[in-house]
């Protein structure tokens, strides 16, 4: 019984000492390190005196929505339009406060349009029948050139330039005479610019960022009389 009591006392002492990081046995003290203290966050370590350059490879996903700015925009239901990205970001932390790198990503820009099918601007002839939905979709592969300023171990600011290459398609969904759903699509490279480019600003806390992306090129060719879709997208991105 006495041995069991001694073991319980030692166990309690060890538990308490683990919380205080000091184990006392008689007149002897042993410093204990918490497991978490052995983990090193490279972003936090980069702000110490022992900084060394390193490379980050970061998978990421993002979602954003177009913002209506100004007049002369393509008629669309903007709250039902969106942009989605998935890709990998490669960053070289050259100095304490600055990283440089690139991103490769696959994207989709989807606009729910209003009146393009009935007007026939893209299809050539007005779409007739019971129209249920119409959507303009641009699906590019993109590259980014990233500049990241590290304000604190967790707070960063990004300024990026991007270029994209993809195909623009127009989809409609109508109801046939027999009541069935009919999905049609049109894709004409002669009316649009497959190469797009723009700039992106991001404010990041830890692995979550709020960003704004602005397209500086025209989606449609100058000789095609068509209003441009929104150039500005605002959304959230997450790096793993």
TrEMBL record:
Domain of life, per lineage: Bacteria
Keyword entries, A-Z: Signal
Signal recorded as keyword: yes
Segment forming the signal sequence: 1-18
Name of the featured protein: Outer membrane protein beta-barrel domain-containing protein
Source lineage: Bacteria, Pseudomonadati, Bacteroidota, Bacteroidia, Bacteroidales
């Amino acid at each position: 019984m006495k041995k069991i009591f001694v073991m319980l006392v030692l166990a309690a002492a060890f538990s308490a000492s683990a919380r205080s990081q000091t184990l006392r046995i008689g007149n002897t003290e042993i410093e204990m390190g918490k497991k978490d203290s052995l983990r090193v966050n490279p972003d936090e370590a980069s702000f110490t005196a022992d900084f060394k350059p390193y490379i980050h490879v970061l998978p990421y996903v993002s979602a954003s929505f177009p913002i209506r700015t100004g007049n002369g925009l393509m008629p669309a239901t903007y709250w039902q339009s969106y942009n989605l990205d998935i890709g990998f970001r490669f960053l070289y932390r050259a100095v304490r406060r600055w990283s440089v790198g690139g991103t490769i990503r696959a994207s989709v820009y989807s606009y729910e349009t209003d009146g393009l099918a009935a007007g026939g601007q893209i299809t050539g002839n007005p779409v007739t029948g019971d129209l249920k939905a119409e959507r303009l979709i641009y699906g590019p592969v993109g590259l980014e050139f990233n500049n990241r300023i590290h304000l604190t171990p967790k707070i960063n600011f990004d300024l990026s330039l991007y270029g994209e290459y993809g195909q623009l398609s127009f989809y409609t969904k109508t109801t046939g005479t027999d009541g069935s759903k009919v999905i049609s699509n049109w894709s004409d490279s002669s009316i649009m610019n497959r190469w797009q480019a723009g700039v992106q600003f991001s404010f990041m806390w830890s692995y979550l960022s709020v960003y704004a992306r602005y397209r500086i090129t025209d989606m449609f060719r100058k000789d095609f009389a068509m209003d441009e879709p929104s150039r500005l997208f605002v959304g959230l991105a997450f790096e793993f």
